[in-house]
Amino acid sequence: MGKKVVTLGEIMLRLSTPGNTRFVQSDSFDVVYGGGEANVAVSCANYGHDAYFVTKLPKHEIGQSAVNALRKYGVKQISLPVVATA
């Protein structure tokens, strides 16, 4: 088993259009999550380390989608001080 790696930071959401369409021409978008610390956690998990990502996310579907995306790429545990939205 690899070493334990903990990253702290924010996660970003990127919306991109399918193909080469312009943003205003598209009715649907591809969602990709990333950010420096999140990317490091994913890379470390891919190399067999226990990767943890600590951040603060809103308590709604987009926040849960970000958690799911990181887990899908091997980040084993994500510490989330969840914030309720107004």
UniProtKB/TrEMBL annotation:
UniProt cross-references to Pfam families, sorted A to Z: PfkB
GO MF annotation, one: catalytic activity
Signal sequence region: none
Residues in Carbohydrate kinase PfkB domain copies: 3-80
Stored InterPro entries: PfkB_dom, Ribokinase-like
Name of the protein: Carbohydrate kinase PfkB domain-containing protein
Highest classification ranks of the organism: Bacteria, Pseudomonadati, Bacteroidota, Bacteroidia, Bacteroidales
